[in-house]
Amino acid sequence: IQNKEFVCRGHDYERLEAFQQRMLNEFPHAIAMQHANQPDETIFQAEAQYLQIYAVTPIPENQEVLQRDGIPDNIKSFYKVNHIWRFRYDRPFHKGTKDKENEFKSLWVERTTLILVQSLPGISRWFEVEKREVVEMSPLENAIEVLENKNQQLRTLISQCQTRQMQNVNPLTMCLNGVIDAAVNGGVARYQEAFFIKEYILNHPEDGEKITRLRELMLEQAQILEFGLAVHEKVVPQDMRPLHKKLVDQFFVMKSSL
């Protein structure tokens, strides 16, 4: 297993720290590397044992099932973590001059995709990585993906609330609060400052379609939030009414800034 890479499925609810400790117990002479960067040649050629452990995200093969309306959430949950060949991890980094007022302007993401010899889970809980692909995502592409994922998460939670699949309204409350609070305190406004200004549009004529896509996602998110708050109002318990009112007030501030 020297200089090889594997993806391993941990135990149910196992924290990364516990998994790391389990591996170090199995390899008591190994030195744990504290970063996810690709090791250099000195590490590959070293006499000592090194273990590099980090979390990866499964990339479902069957995207059509996940995006189709009307499919029960338990079926979607199955496809999110079964029959998976590809996994990824992201390393954010800043390229060029970092703007202290708005870090989104220079925040790039190095995305590494790991492709396995066989899909997980299988007869074994771990399989070797056959191939790795590395791409860089620009700050604008990163912003688009963040908004797409958040909109999808909101839609799922709202749907679960409407169909009474959710026993507790807290996950929806926390998600609405996180998105609206971040937007009021600069989240979406920071995207506007970074990508919608004349200077950026003139300097990046190739990004026209992506800027349009980001604008669409921001307006779409406002619609989802408005609908989510209407659903939330029907199911929120009495003791959380003040928080709901605060979210509604903050939402109108956010909406007026778009």
Automatic annotation (TrEMBL):
Alphabetical list of Gene3D superfamilies matching this protein: 1.20.58.740
InterPro entries: DOCK (IPR026791), DOCK_C_lobe_C (IPR043162), DOCKER_dom (IPR027357), DOCKER_Lobe_B (IPR046770), DOCKER_Lobe_C (IPR046773)
Keywords: Coiled coil
Gene Ontology biological process: cell chemotaxis; small GTPase-mediated signal transduction
Molecular-function GO terms, alphabetical: guanyl-nucleotide exchange factor activity; small GTPase binding
Ranges in coiled-coil conformation: 137-164
GO CC, alphabetical: cytoplasm; plasma membrane
Entry keyword Coiled coil: yes
Record has S-adenosyl-L-methionine as a keyword: no
Pfam families found in the cross-reference section: DHR-2_Lobe_B, DHR-2_Lobe_C
Occurrences of domain DOCKER (ranges): 1-258
Similarity remark: Belongs to the DOCK family.
PANTHER family membership: DEDICATOR OF CYTOKINESIS (PTHR45653), DEDICATOR OF CYTOKINESIS PROTEIN 4 (PTHR45653:SF7)
Protein name as annotated: DOCK4 protein
Gene name in the database record: Dock4
